[in-house]
Specification:
Elements (H helix, E strand, L loop, with lengths): L5 H13 L5 H16 L10 H13 L5 H4 L3 E5 L7 H7 L4 E6 L2 H13 L5 E5 L12 E7 L4 H8 L3 E11 L4 H14 L1 E3 L3 E2 L10 E7 L13 H4 L4
């Protein structure tokens, strides 16, 4: 069990209370996940102090539970999952959802696999692939999530072919960037998506300039997308 300072225990307790995650198995798994990230020397993150893991990883991931499009999703894809965030905490919080953690780095995939097994996260699976090459995910996801992955227009192109009709892309961002948002709006129009208003969120006390961008699939994505690997970054739409 993870050892936390009193402040860390308060933060974790508040997080569990906020999202009604006080059931024994859910709390145990979230604690185990935080402990695993803090203890594994190969964890692909610079945030490893237990209290910081609760704040910067668990809380920042679980804030997506404020979106019905996420809480009601049957199949969630976490693109560029890295150390497993936000996918693993959300898989723990949403045991009825299937969560695919898409990651192209083999070392990170191995860590996610170890973490999921250690925390008994049975509804999460690792997809060792680039988002552009994950053919099995095409039009199969009710929600696609992206946290610290790529510029907004690039993420829109990665996600559009994976979303089922009516599905929602949710992108984590810090300060708002009107120019980037305008470019993403134009890319979304090409790809059959419609951006909603960015939502300012407060995953933990003192968090500033945190926004989630919801973007809904309203029309079929044209053939030819996503383009071959690397093109979305090299020549972004919009």
């Amino acid at each position: 069990m993870m050892e936390l300072s009193p402040d860390g225990e308060d933060a974790l307790g508040a997080l569990l209370q906020r999202y009604s995650l006080r059931s024994g198995s859910t709390e145990r798994r979230l604690r185990a996940l935080a402990a695993w990230v803090a203890a594994d020397a190969d964890a692909p993150t610079t945030v490893t102090a237990p209290e910081a893991v609760v704040r910067d990883h668990l809380a920042d991931s679980l804030v997506a539970l404020e979106f019905p499009a996420v809480t009601g999703a049957r199949h969630i894809a976490d693109l560029g999952s890295g150390a497993g965030f936000p996918g693993l905490p959300l898989a723990i919080a949403l045991p009825d959802a299937r969560v695919s953690l898409v990651e192209s780095n083999g070392r990170k995939c191995a860590f996610i696999d170890r973490a999921a097994a250690a925390c008994s996260v049975d509804n999460a699976s690792v997809v060792y692939a680039r988002a552009e090459q994950w053919a099995e995910g095409a039009e199969a996801c009710d929600a696609v999530l992206a946290r610290a992955l790529a510029p907004l227009p690039v993420v829109v192109e990665y996600a559009a072919p994976l979303l089922a009709m009516g599905g929602t892309l949710v992108v984590w961002r810090g300060r708002r960037d009107p120019e980037e948002e305008a470019q993403a709006d134009r890319a979304a129009a090409i790809l059959g998506l419609e951006p909603g208003p960015p939502v300012q969120v407060h995953p933990y006390p003192g968090a500033e300039h945190r926004h989630l961008h919801p973007i809904v699939k309203v029309a079929p994505t044209p053939p030819g997308y996503p383009r071959r690997p690397g093109m979305a970054r090299k020549r972004p739409l919009g």
